[in-house]
Amino acid sequence: MDHSEADLGLFGPDSISWRVHREPVLWVAGVRALYLQALHPRAVQGVVQNTDYRQGNWARFMRTAEYVATVVFGTTHDAQRAGARVRKLHDRLRATDPATGEEYRIDEPELLRWVHVCEVDSFVTTARRAGVRLSDDDVDRYYGEQVRAGELIGLDPATIPDSAEAVAEYFQNIRPELALTPAARDVARFLALPPMPRRYGWTVGRPAWLMVAGSAFTLLPRWARRLYRMPGVPVTDVAATVNVRWLRTLARLLPVAEGPIYRDAMRRVEQAAAAPDGRPSRSQ
């Protein structure tokens, strides 16, 4: 068998990463991560100054989803190649701090770490709140596995929070740097009411997106909702959990097509199981 066909990538079918990321409800998690990331003044300026995020937004959403799927379910080579493309893109991008006038790279480790932690926290938190059975040990394993995803974008693995306790400590330490800047407010408004593709604008597309974006926002930690000048009360947490569990059930009932990257991963699992020694190849 060709080695690339047996290669099950950075994580493999027994990983928590595969268990979490096979859930269609993680579309909600992706939007939650964007709301959270926008609260870092330098991170959001990097987006605003280097992209016209109001144009081509759906294509960007799809490219991001494809990147995450490639890192989780693709072969080791595909994941490394995707990471190299991201590093090359970031390498040439700069932004200017509007408060100080300082120019900075958008691939500064502090910013990359913020983006990474917001993403992985959103993925595993949303999955758990949606009803995916994950123990505390599973959550720690997920964060530990995702250190490899952080390495792909250029982070030193020793600096990446690798457990629930480490992630909580990271957020606690960085909170004084976060703020609801005008740019963050604009991004949040855009996430709630983005322009819809023409054929969906006056159909169920708009209310469906409002449901996704609203669920994503209410799944934010209380301190983040308070920064957005929205309630941080426990009743919101209960309502958010009920809502995202309903969305997970709905996603399972809808004819949601499995993406080609996931289907290819399942094919490689079957081929690996049929190998003479029965053992899949997995990057270590």
UniProtKB/TrEMBL annotation:
Organism: Phytoactinopolyspora mesophila
GO function term, MF aspect, one: oxidoreductase activity
Alphabetical list of InterPro entries matching this protein: MPAB/Lcp_cat_dom (IPR018713)
One family name in Pfam for this protein: MPAB_Lcp_cat
Domain of life where this protein originates: Bacteria
Residue ranges of every copy of the ER-bound oxygenase mpaB/mpaB'/Rubber oxygenase catalytic domain listed in the record: 18-252
Name of the featured protein: DUF2236 domain-containing protein
